[in-house]
Amino acid sequence: MANKTYDLIVLGSGPAGEKGAAQAAYFGKNVALIEKEDVLGGAAANTGTLPSKTLRESALYLSGFRQRDLFGLSFKFKEKVSASDFMYRERLVVQSERSRISHNVKAHNIDLYRGFAEFSDDHTVLVTPKNGTPVTLNSDVFLIATGSHPFQPPIFPFYDSRVYDSDTILHVNDLPGSMLIAGGGVIGCEYACMFAALGIKVHLVEGRNQLLSFMDKELSDNLTKCLRNSGINLHLSTEIEEVTAGDNLGIQLNSGERIEVETLLAATGRNGNTEGMGLEEIGLKPSPRGHLEVNDHYQTNLDHIYAAGDVIGFPALASTAMEQARIAMVHAFNLKYKTELATI
């Protein structure tokens, strides 16, 4: 096994990983970037931020939501939008973003390693590729930016092809006539709006008494009003007790109501990607949902190991993740740049 030493080793090529690596490399540091997936970009480029925003625009366009007749000019749209119509633009945009990230990594002379990284000790990782020889890398500074994956509630029958999470929904083959979305967070509200815009009958179930509870109540209330005006059936302060698979999916709510839909989307939060990395063995203990605790400089309890992005939990936004990683690297290498997140 080959050994190589770097100033910085970054685990994960999503927004935090890419920008953290580029920040350090820009200031002359020797950087290695490790990515276990076949494509760069993490969830933001491949299953989350960028795909969902592209699908939103596709939904608005294909549904004619933003089109108006002007002085006798009429825009005609297909009566029934297919899944292929819906996904076409998303695939193009995702591929473009993957290419941009690859170019940025090369432009900063960052060494890219493909494979799964596991800590051998707190200064060493073993990178095991899907095919090939494992590589041992050493560094005095690490940035863990391994992202997250959808949490799958055990009562949901994910073996059924009609049950999706926020990653697998991007592979939907046919647009259903009806859908229940579990979870009234950012992801749930976003998909509820876009599917409703396509004419799909949408039920949105949220256990709390308001949507996006981290926001100001006035904003949450306005969003609730907009969703209801869009024809979305909201079920607040409501939990799902049981899901049964038959000709349709039957969802039993704790309110006593039973809903039958063609498709179920679980938007029930995300877990940090920390399993199997050997973190406990070096003194880092992720939360039950796989998240790492950090201080204001994004240091874990091991001062030379930083973490940023979805792997540290809320707010789990791409733009915030980028800034978190930049701030972490500024602190790690005492760079004269930025020291805190910008407020809006």
UniProtKB/TrEMBL annotation:
Q: Name one GO biological process term.
A: 2-oxoglutarate metabolic process
Q: Which GO terms describe its molecular function?
A: dihydrolipoyl dehydrogenase (NADH) activity; flavin adenine dinucleotide binding
The cofactors named for this UniProt entry are:
FAD
Q: What UniProt keywords apply to this chain's record, in alphabetical order?
A: FAD, Flavoprotein
The yes or no answer to whether the keyword Transferase is present is no
Q: What is the lineage of its organism?
A: unclassified sequences, metagenomes, ecological metagenomes
Q: Which Pfam families match?
A: Pyr_redox_2
What residue stretches are annotated with the FAD/NAD(P)-binding domain?
6-325
The record's Gene3D superfamilies line, in alphabetical order, gives:
FAD/NAD(P)-binding domain
* Identification of the protein by name: FAD/NAD(P)-binding domain-containing protein
One GO cellular component, as annotated: cytosol
Query: Which organism was this protein described from?
Result: marine metagenome
Task: Read off the InterPro entries from this record.
Answer: Class-I_Pyr_Nuc-Dis_Oxidored (IPR050151), FAD/NAD-bd_sf (IPR036188), FAD/NAD-binding_dom (IPR023753)
